[in-house]
Amino acid sequence: MKAVGIIGTGMYVPERILTNHDLEKMVDTNDEWIVTRTGIRERHIAAENQATSDLAHEAAVRALESAKLKPEDVELIIVATITPDMFFPSTACILQDRLGARRAAAFDLSAACSGFIYSLATAVSMLKSGMYRNALVVGAECLSRITDYTDRNTCILFGDGAGAVVLGEVPEGRGFLSFELGADGSGGPLLNIAGGGSRLPASADTVESKAHYIRMAGNEVFKFAVRIMGSAAEEALRKAGIDKKDVDLLVPHQANIRIIQAALGRLELPEEKCMINLDRYGNASAASIPIALAEAVEQGRVREGDCLVLVGFGGGLTWGASVLIW
Ligand code: UT7
Hints:
By secondary structure, the chain is of the alpha/beta class. The protein is built from 11 helices and 13 strands.
């Protein structure tokens, strides 16, 4: 089995910024509460004419440029998202057309905030099996479109954006060493959008009852996240045969600084060994890990041979972690 790794990264966030002070004017909240409870200061919001595929396209173009791969040579596109442009066709197909990646197979993957790790695991397996030689994996979200801006429990958290990576063959000893994926469907009701699917199709009633917005039992999700982030990362490290003291950079899902700090505590890692950018972007669901990774690369925080751990959790409930050598 050949070694498969990341050969290009890219990210994009829309221009418009929504600060905590802006939110103070919209709901009963304040900057101090949001910063101390979440670590978030601002988030980016898509323009009216931007949909998820537009954000994905910007990030994908940058990732392909950094990998020096032409769109027509891309063989597989996976987009992780819970905010597709529409039910179908998939956002990956819309992106494929936009890029001119005519040879690529394309599909979306739904695993909420764990979607990017699930997508990486899927693409890496397909590349290792010899089915494809390269893949474009994108996490992209327009969460502002499914956020209730009268609900202070959720609207302070979410932001829009996209991150992308290109996967390809890398020298032996580098690339992805392990994945740990998991799900607990019994926790589904803790974080969901109830309306608009086959269970509760869109109607005047579902609009009236705000069933098309994210609903979340924040506290329950918080407890789950604190438990699972550390244990998923530890399990991925165990599978990779790597000691936690040898981790150079943790790239966690950017949901809440307190959740990240709990994971760092469990892994006995100092904050310098962690990529944190949720203060500027908030929680961008499936896009948060690839945005953080692309920014870490841009900032020169990832060097050849470094050991990286990616870890996330989210709706489903789901979780995922991966260990790779850069
Ligand atoms: O990607 C996965 C998606 N989800 C998550 O990662 C979310 C995980 N959960 C969290 O990050 C946290 O649970 C929250 C940030 C959502 C909430 O923080 P918390 O420390 O768990 O607060 P809480 O829900 O226990 O609420 C504490 C108090 C409550 O008031 P009372 O009942 O104590 O009087 C809330 O009503 O804070 C109140 N509150 C707020 N106050 C000001 C809730 N939201 C706000 C707000 N501004 N925005």
